[in-house]
Amino acid sequence: MNQVVGFIGLGNMGLPMAGHLAEAGVRVRVWNRSRAKADSLITRGAQWVPQLEGVAEAGAIVITMLSNDQAVKQLAGTESNLASRLAPGGIHLSMSTISPSTSRELAKHYEGLGASHVAAPVFGRPEAAAARKLWICISGPKAAKERVQPVLKILGQGIFDFGEDPGGANVVKLAGNFLIASAMEAMAEAFALAQKNGIDRSAVADLFGQTLFACPIYQNYGKAVAQERYTPAGFKLSLGLKDVDLVLQSAAASRMPMPLASLLHDRFMTGMAKGREEMDWSALALGVSEDAGLK
Amino acid sequence: MNQVVGFIGLGNMGLPMAGHLAEAGVRVRVWNRSRAKADSLITRGAQWVPQLEGVAEAGAIVITMLSNDQAVKQLAGTESNLASRLAPGGIHLSMSTISPSTSRELAKHYEGLGASHVAAPVFGRPEAAAARKLWICISGPKAAKERVQPVLKILGQGIFDFGEDPGGANVVKLAGNFLIASAMEAMAEAFALAQKNGIDRSAVADLFGQTLFACPIYQNYGKAVAQERYTPAGFKLSLGLKDVDLVLQSAAASRMPMPLASLLHDRFMTGMAKGREEMDWSALALGVSEDAGLK
Amino acid sequence: MNQVVGFIGLGNMGLPMAGHLAEAGVRVRVWNRSRAKADSLITRGAQWVPQLEGVAEAGAIVITMLSNDQAVKQLAGTESNLASRLAPGGIHLSMSTISPSTSRELAKHYEGLGASHVAAPVFGRPEAAAARKLWICISGPKAAKERVQPVLKILGQGIFDFGEDPGGANVVKLAGNFLIASAMEAMAEAFALAQKNGIDRSAVADLFGQTLFACPIYQNYGKAVAQERYTPAGFKLSLGLKDVDLVLQSAAASRMPMPLASLLHDRFMTGMAKGREEMDWSALALGVSEDAGLK
Amino acid sequence: MNQVVGFIGLGNMGLPMAGHLAEAGVRVRVWNRSRAKADSLITRGAQWVPQLEGVAEAGAIVITMLSNDQAVKQLAGTESNLASRLAPGGIHLSMSTISPSTSRELAKHYEGLGASHVAAPVFGRPEAAAARKLWICISGPKAAKERVQPVLKILGQGIFDFGEDPGGANVVKLAGNFLIASAMEAMAEAFALAQKNGIDRSAVADLFGQTLFACPIYQNYGKAVAQERYTPAGFKLSLGLKDVDLVLQSAAASRMPMPLASLLHDRFMTGMAKGREEMDWSALALGVSEDAGLK
User: B31 in helix, strand or coil?
Assistant: First the structure.
């Protein structure tokens, strides 16, 4: 593929993603705060650019894979000149988990300068990124979504389109993280009830993971919650809180309550109060066990 | 199998179960409030007994598959003479969804009279009962659990043992129904958020049913909640409330809070307040949509 | 007053109440599980009766002041012969905090036997009972309510009539305890927020007790929660849970959710899980502080 | 009093407050978006200044009484030159309901430029402002707090000091609004339970307003919630939501959950979803009644 793809954000998700692009023959240009992170990519054919704006040129695609709204706004929003360098015809492919409202803001900014913005947040942990098994949700202008398809196909095992509203895919991504956290809370309460009745937590997790809930989320998080193994963190509790708060903000912007999201917010906040921000987000289950007098 | 198995409770679960036993050559004796229900079973070799106590004899197994704790207590507890007719050596195989405390009471009663009690509640709707695809949880005395294995294997696709405490299997069964209701609440909130953002509910349900939550509960209830089809009821909202209340009672007996179960209780109670007791329990999602101003 | 008034239940509420009646010249007959409790009353003119039924005679009034529904049902319900001894024309004056449904059951029982039942639960701690400062809610048949007025005026500083439904006064009493517990939860959260910001809990309690919430509940419980003094118990946490559960049962019987009552149930249950049943019910605030990482 | 006091914000709170200052002989300088609002003040001796900065001079006091954090930041924060005009020795007296974090930011800004910032949010509706019956919470540097005392004494009936942290008084103000909203939710649930049992809502409100909760909040809001009179708004539901969200933000910044505040957020959000933003904030009770099937 002769496509130029700039890549900003070489964290534990972005690094394997950029690597796959480079290996697939895409002309990848990378920029990162610390250059050291890019070494393995350069070996595989990626080009290092010393200045952020160097990742972009007219008509190119630039992917951002960053940790939060603020980072994306700063590096790819009005504080950067990315949009004008991509014009005419370039595309900002925003793959971070950010709020729908930030996505809508960015879309306006890019359109106003003659470029496009496509939201394409992903489901999957770093292992999935490494295995090209991400699930990708997209939303944005039709033509731009078509142009990014070949790039996304290199990264994921499935692409789901949620329309033209640039915030659509972000809503769905947040909804998914909300469903996962909800499942963890439900399992934490169910397993604590079992434990208080003398039943082995793992036996219960196994039953449900093999039957009614024979799917990855219940199997993997079920094991973590049953065995109470919360370190090392696959996804930090502080980030779980951040995402649940983005859910609540989106719900507020949409004028609706989400009482289960409120409960999750409270649970994560207890985790923060007790100094668990670096544990895995499944450590919300510790609060359940403590309330049950099990700790 | 030359085993005598009495069967009490020919509802939409019990009827297909008793039928499979009869077809498998078990000597099934059935009693039911209305005899008409038993006709199809008699054709298949089951024996009708005109008096409840006729289902039991020394050393036999008697299965109860009834709608609630009260019915089981009345027909198989101290108000009946089932236990003494099963003695010595008979087994009460209690397959209804009842509370752990009722199960523990029944176990004492049976033991005291020289018989045994095994709890064996099941997961699965009537279709699963008809297809012999039930998942069965058991708990109780070891020897008795071994003796009922051949009978249970006729009825289900998997048997999970939760120890000797007669209430153990009931705790797990309730925990399972709690997990299902929790998943429905989570999906209802997530889909309402999507809808408020102009995204098709079914598209979101499909995404999650194919990826993170590729398991029957999310696929089937996801479809119902996405399409808002709450009649006819597969499992009535009033029964959903009953089960969540059994969960909360068990949690109270175990001295622990279950805030997500409390939230579900409140949600089902709103459904009751609005006259939805005959709808499917997934109709709890209507309350979510109303709170969001979508109705 | 020449009225015969039987009195059942000489706990820390009943004892001062019966004393006031005796001193006012009412012909008080007392029965209690242990006679020792009655000694001080006998000195003041009360008559000890060795058998429970001795407290009643045709046309008399019998007051019950007991710890829960079960005790009232047992000593004054169908398991006793109190109703028939009061007939014709006697009145059961039920002053305990019990459920509306128990009250309705008792009313039917008494009416069926030619006697009457009046619910008259009270607000006030033992100090208020001793000072004749109780607030009394009543409900039941008009004529009976009029007949008990002189007796109630000896005990309280105000009588509030809630109609003919025998359960009415009980609903209001439970609603009151719910309001108190809600105020405690609100103060506990508010004071913890202040404390986390370096502000003295008592300074906040003083402000509100002197201004917006210048009323006994906020002043007294405000002080307890601010100073975190939870022993000795004025009203045990286990009884607080009992009352909130009666609230939830009444709400369920009325088909409505009460999410704040559910939150209180969960909070008290955490207290039970941590072995705080003998502390004052204001110790629900400990759970708030723990979740905030303050303990 | 020869003190110069600038006044920014002539809404339904600020207008009567500025009027009292003018009448007390303070040299009031007012600025407002629309001059018409100031006419009645000019009659009473206040001086109109055509430019915002005209309200301030070295050593003066400037009061802001505005609707939200953003307005205060814009008119009295880094976007204005108020701080430098007050230096040296002037004081910004911030009486709006804003977040502790905004207050802390402003304090830094003023200190950095040689002026002071005192937070002095108030409790009381416009009637209380008109009657000089406000309750005032203050926090900030000692000397500055002393200097503003004579001014505050003209406006309120009591001043409560919460220390040197500039955010302290704001935390307490938010805590107070949280207590009020909590009391409304509690009453709404209690009155709905009464109504479902055939009891008059107002009779219950009267009982509690005269006894356990004989204080203004329960008496006034109790009447509103009992009679279900939610227009005209004394304090809009949208502002109630704003304040509860400030509470939740402060709790988050303090790392603690406030589940009752979360419940209130959800309840107000349902009100927003149903188009009730212009109703009084006590209209949160409508959601309670709807969930109970009463509407």
Answer: strand
